[in-house]
Structure formats: structure tokens, C-alpha cells
Amino acid sequence: MIQDIFPHVFHNEFEVKSPAEDSCFFYFSEGSICLTEGKSNTIPRFSALEDEVRNRFMSHCDYLFSIDQMDFFLVDETSVSLTDTPGISLFKSSILRELTPMWVSFSAVCASQLHRFYSSNRYCGCCGSEMIKSKKERSMVCSSCGNTVYPKIAPAVIVGIIHDGKLLLTKYAGREYTRYALLAGYTEFGETLEDTVNREVMEEVGLRVKNIRYYKNQPWGFSDSILMGYWAELDGSPQVTLDETELSTAVWMAPEDIPDDFTNISLTHEMILLFKNGKINETQEEKA
Q: Per the confidence metrics, is the pTM higher than 0.85?
């Protein structure tokens, strides 16, 4: 999955650091990310910038995290513009899933999550005053009332429902993403994760499930989420009642009929491929 970057090590401990010329930087603007141009688009370094531009960028950035000994910074796009930067261009953020190797994609997704946090909390939700970045922890603090906000991480479930040797696969309604997926949904207030599984399955496809079993979890910066994967068995009729505002289709599919067009970055895809390759029981035995 996207967070599996071994042998590289991700360090997300909060620190206040100044960038070096060989440090990497992220620059986001209106749904796009700044990358180096070439056969292998990757995260740019300050050293790739001309002197004047480099000085401006290094004066308006914040430390995010490190991978091994490599530091990554976020440039404030409201303070400096991306001009006069040969070899560096803006690309649509949809490219994040395609960046290679995996640690590059993972770093870009984590950076985009933190960028959303900082840019969506410029003003206090309690009194409307300007928020400032804390020097003690990863948070935004109101300059007037002291209200403190931390990066949003929303818990959500992924559910693989099995019945008569088939897996229920769905497709989202009204999204650019067109591959098959598993049922998914966010946890609501007052719910356990298992409550979320039962509610989401009933709401989206009108089915009941039993024998709900936890599988694995995954940080998913694309939607500021932590995903929890569950297997479940159908309890009752397999007749689907589709919530067409959420899904365009839901079908029971045998392993041999499942397409091969899945990647290795998501928990959803890992679970689908486990079912397709007949390895679900192996994963349960490993946990026992």
C-alpha cells in the first residue's frame, strides 16, 4: 500500500527547521502540484531554483516531515508565486497516485493533506481572527482567543462482503474514478467501527451483514482519512437496493471475473486482490 515505503523510514515528528539547498519542497496551487519536468516527474529541491527565486521560496516555507535523512518543506503559495522556474511546472494533483517510486507518491499525498489543513484554517472558526502556526506542535492557534486546531483525520471503513463465493463490488456515482471498489463510508458520532459497517452497508446497498472481522488499516491522505478494512458475510437476501446518489452499480462477482486493473497503493485494492487470489483465509490464519 502507499504507506509501505520500506526500507525508507517516514519521520512525522513535529520540528521547527530551516531548509537547506538540497531539501525538497512542495508547492500547491488551485488543485495542482509543482514537480520537476522530465521522464520521471518528482519532487523538486530548492537547489533547482535560481538564486533569487530560491531565496524567496526558502523564506516562506514550513518544515513538514522527513523520509530517511531527506527533509520536506511546504512553500506558502500565498506569499510567493511560481514564476521563472525553468524545469519545474504545475501538474494536476491527480498525478499523485502515479508518482514513482512509492515513497515519492506517499510524501506528496502527506504534503497535500497538510497543505489542505493549513490553507483551510487561516481564520478562527470561533471568533474569525487570524490563525497562526504553532511553534510547539503541528496545529493552528487563534491569535485572539487561543482556539487550537489540529490536522483533520477522519475514520472510515472499507467493507468486503462475501456471499456464496462472490464479493460485492461497487462503482461510485458521479466521480472520475471508474474502477470497481468496495463499500466504504465515514464513521459518524457515537458509532463503533462495526456500527459504521452495518449502517453503511444498509444505506448504500440495502443489505445486512454478519461475522464482521477486522483486517487492516491505512492512512489515506487523499481524503484526510484513516481507513479500517473489514470482511463480512451476507446475512439474508443478496438482493441489492442501490443508493444511486452514492453508487452507480453494485454486483456480486466471482474471483475469476474480477478485472486485473488494480494497483498496490490502496487498502481497497489489496482486499479485492486477496479475494481474487483466494488468500483471505491465509490472512486470518496469520492473525490467529
A: yes
